[in-house]
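Quick start: what a row looks like.
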Amino acid sequence: MYSLKKPSVSFQEAFRRCIFRKHNESDFKNIESILQACVDNYESNAEIKSLHEILPLDENSIIPITNNNLKKLYSDDLQKKDDPRKIYDDLLASAKYGKCVYCSYGESVELDHLLPKSKFPEFSILPYNLVPSCRRCNALKLDYIPSNNRVGFVHPYYEDYSQIEWLYARPIFTNNFLNVEFYVDDPLNLISAESLARLRFQFTKLNLNIRYSGQVASEISDIYYSLNNHFNKGGSYDVHTYLLSEAESARKSNLNSLKTALFTCMANSMRVCDMDWEI
């Protein structure tokens, strides 16, 4: 999970590019002010982490346009028409290192609607509501709608916890084999209780502990023999120093990445540094 710079393209620009030369362009233009009011409300609530307070637009207020028409602005226009598609591609390209905004691990290959278009079609093409994600996280998130400010997803355009360490890991030894468990915490109380609760909710909802734990086996396997070489040369101290160096390198890239948490917890484990385990 990481933050992103807010898109430079406005809803108005995205909307006008999507409706350009549509057979019912004039009908869309007639409801632009209604949709813009919805967008203004979205931004105001996002600023104070209160997206859960937004109610869906009454479809009767946009007749003859329908909710389905609004959804198709995304599927038929933003995703497919040459000019609007540039907006889609730019949003997708904003992903850091090409990684999913939710897990920071999977490849970002599609855009997710933070407030789902199935329930909020008025935000189908709102750039601030579209975030780059991997298919796995997008599928697990589905059309989830937050009910309060403790059970929802962190908004990458309006929230930034990148300078606070909140992803941790602990070693788990089973029959002398090393496994790692990941979890969210804030031991220094630098994050509000509500924000920490949402970080934990998102982590659990997307099954990130299971995903991360399943991936670290290859990470550990890749460095196992290197760790043994360090141990043979300088014992536990050399292993500890090497792991700290790997953790610091990962930390500079992403303070809350899988690798940062993994190498930090390994470096802090006496049993790991004593090489009293196997793969």
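That is the whole record. The beta strands are 110-113, 130-133, 167-174, 177-184. The mean pLDDT is 96.
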